[in-house]
Give the backbone structure.
Amino acid sequence: MKKKLEDNNIEGFVDSCGFESFHTGDSPDRRSVETAAKHGVDISKQRSRLFKVEDFDKFDKIYVMDKNNYRDVSAVARNEDDLKKVDLIMNVLHPGSGMPVPDPYYGGQSGFRKTWELLDQATDVIIEQIIGNKFPKNDS
């Protein structure tokens, strides 16, 4: 997403985080790094961090990968405005489907390629929404 913002001269801030504290500070899985590199994206310097309640203040939109992530983020939402920012990223491609992004970890390199493809498609739509000024913004 960061690269797509840059490629389209769109100013924005993108970050990634999770809820598993035992991964805090870790680098991405080498298969993720390899897959991204094949697409001209360097994620090797990324480090995992935990989701913070303050992220609701920093971000206009918070996309999650699956219903467990949705539950985790929603559980720390302070109000309805926070909840409005949260959505499953695959709903961008398939509105209202609740479709998860499959966890690539046990799927070998092909699992990481499939995850890349899905997220690449979803982020293309998000970029189109931003360019078309149809990006869902929080009115608060």
Summary: The chain is about 40% helix and 5% strand.
